[in-house]
Specification:
alpha+beta; 289 residues; 11 strands
Length: 289
């Protein structure tokens, strides 16, 4: 039997295009080879990254999906009547056939996530958290860019594939970052939380300067660390009519907890004991959290 593209992405035949795209995004970030430094897991990641890329390429294209639903992977790659973009063909007698030749996983990744931020896996470590201990994590002091419809993520390192990067033809416009501390509690970064903040920005209407307010929704993921930066493109002040608005950057600041502190992905509780208890041992309970 051929690959089950629906099972690979965790979707069904009735899933919408947006649901299929969201499933691909989540899995592509999880299985991108650059995220897996251990040789033992890197090979598995390379295979998974290739398979989910192929699955998305087929299921997101109505013609390829139709062929796959009828003939399966074998029919898609082995030759069926008709034709579709991304497929090569030939003739057997008077019958024209086409075969699916696959997709470049790096080019697809770049197409979905954009070509910026090529060092995300180096700078951010793992991308998401589950809990403080033993789960997936993000390195401290990382920057998360909520530009457009998702983080701007780069790519590279897939065997046998040379990533293509376009060279800029014009000098980029310098956009200023406006940084602001965002205070959260230890409980917030343990469970995750969504905060809504009203921000005021300076804007220009021609030469008239005015203040404009907007409510921003900030989703803080479980496990983020002190100093993590969350950026909103174009939500900062506009300094002049000739310049675009700057970016608003929130810097995570974790308030001290009454009982606990955090060390890496561990919760630490300090309890004073007597000298004699160091030799005899002691059992204590603390329930006043």
């Amino acid at each position: 039997m051929g690959k089950d593209y629906y099972k690979l992405l965790g979707v069904t035949r009735s899933s919408s295009e947006d649901e299929i795209k969201r499933a691909y995004k989540k899995l592509a970030l999880k299985w991108h080879p650059d995220k897996h430094k251990d040789p033992k897991t890197k090979k598995q990641a390379e295979e998974m990254f290739k398979d989910i890329s192929e699955a998305y390429d087929v299921l997101s294209d109505s013609e390829k999906k139709k062929i796959y639903d009828i003939y399966g992977e074998e029919g898609l790659k082995g030759g069926i009547p008709g034709g579709a973009e991304g497929m090569s063909g030939g003739r057997v007698g008077n019958v024209r056939y086409t075969t699916y030749t696959g997709v470049n996983p790096e080019e697809l990744f770049s197409k979905i996530f954009g070509k910026g931020g090529h060092d995300i896996f180096d700078n951010m470590g793992d991308f998401t958290y589950t809990t403080f201990g033993g789960g997936e994590g993000m390195g401290g002091g990382s920057r998360v860019s909520f530009f457009d419809d998702g983080p701007s993520v780069g790519f590279g390192g897939f065997p046998g594939v040379s990533p293509k990067r376009s060279s800029p033809t014009t000098a980029p416009v310098q956009v200023k970052d406006y940084e602001k501390d965002l205070k959260v509690t230890l409980e917030d970064i343990f469970t995750g939380v969504t905060k809504k903040l009203k921000v005021g920005r300076w804007r220009f209407d021609g030469n008239r300067k005015y203040s404009h307010e907007k409510i921003l929704e900030i989703k803080i993921r479980p496990g983020w660390k002190e100093g993590t930066k969350i950026s909103f493109k174009g939500e900062g002040d506009q300094e002049s009519p000739d310049q675009p608005p700057g970016n608003l950057v929130f810097i995570l600041r974790v308030a001290d907890h009454k009982y606990f502190s955090r060390e890496d992905n561990n919760l630490v509780y300090t309890h004073p004991i007597k000298l004699i208890e160091c030799f005899t041992g002691v059992v204590f309970q603390h329930t006043n959290y």
